[in-house]
Structures are given as C-alpha cells and as structure tokens.
Design a protein that fits this description.
Length: 169
C-alpha cells in the first residue's frame, strides 16, 4: 500500500451543491462540466465534486500520494470515481465558497502537471438539496501525479448520484 505524503481533514463549506478542485487562480461552475458519473466532473484543468446538500459544511479528507494507491476502498463509501486534472500553475487546491481550509492548498505537491483524483463520497442521501448547519456528508480525495487517463468508475450506489446520472446523461 502506498503511504500518503500528507493527509489533511477539515470542513469545507459548499454552496450550490458542489465544491471545487482547481488551480489557485481558476474559477469553475458545475454547469461547465460533464458530471454524468453523478459525482465528479472535470474539464482537464479543474474538477467539481457534486454534493447532496445545497449548502453548508461537508467533511473532506485529502491524501497526497507519490504513486497510485494500491487497492480501492469501496466498503465504507457510496460512490467512488477517479478522474484526471491538469495543474498548469502547480497550485491545485480544494475549496468551497469560503476560504480554502489550511492544508488544502498545494494538492499538486510535485509541481505543475497532470494528477489523478480518486474521489470517495458517502452521506449524499442524508439531506439532498437541503441547507445544513453541521456536516452530514464525507468525502475523501486521493491525489497523485499521473498521466491523463480516462475516467474510472469504481462504485455508484447512492440515490443522489443516480438522480444526477439520469438527468445529465
């Protein structure tokens, strides 16, 4: 098993049902991305992760790796999808609609280039399309440098993701 270079966990505040993985100076909206997998959409330079809640905090853990993780953890997660993102500036970060939590900058930990993101989600059916005051959803994103590759879907089992797949396909 590949050991993380760094692991950080914090609350990220989301609005409009998504949070972003993008370069420091980038800006995205969920409408610009093909998220037909129901969880994460990319345009090669950024990604949006679709949440069940409309607004409020979610728990996010990010682990930075030097190489691809060995096995895929499916047991504790409802949805797991892997995508590629290019960090032109080498300043990839995870952010919601407020300030980026400490430790969620420099996800492009080996500098500019292409990275794989393995996005895990659970809890999106708890309060779909509702605002929340406390986290009811958990996300884990594993990040490592790798050549661009096609999207890989490992698991799709929540109702919220199924609704997105139905409306965006």
């Amino acid at each position: 098993m590949t050991e993380p270079v760094r692991t950080t966990t914090a609350e990220v505040h989301v609005s409009y049902g998504f949070f972003q993985i993008r370069d420091l100076d980038g800006q995205v909206t969920d409408q610009a991305f093909d998220a037909s997998n129901g969880l994460v959409g990319t345009d090669a330079t950024a990604a949006v992760v679709l949440t069940g809640i409309k607004s409020g905090p979610v728990n996010l853990t990010v682990e930075l790796l030097d190489t691809a993780p060995g096995s895929v953890d499916l047991d504790d997660w409802d949805e797991v999808v892997e995508v590629s993102v290019d960090s032109e500036d080498g300043e990839l970060l995870a952010c919601g609609d407020l300030d980026t939590p400490p430790g969620f900058m420099d996800l492009s930990h080996t500098g500019p280039g292409t990275y794989r993101l393995r996005v895990h989600a659970r809890g999106r059916d708890t309060a779909p399309k509702a605002p929340v005051d406390e986290p009811v959803e958990d996300y884990k994103i594993s990040v490592w440098p790798a050549p661009e590759a096609a999207e890989t879907i490992y698991k799709q089992s929540d109702n919220h993701g199924q609704e997105i797949r139905t409306t965006r396909s």
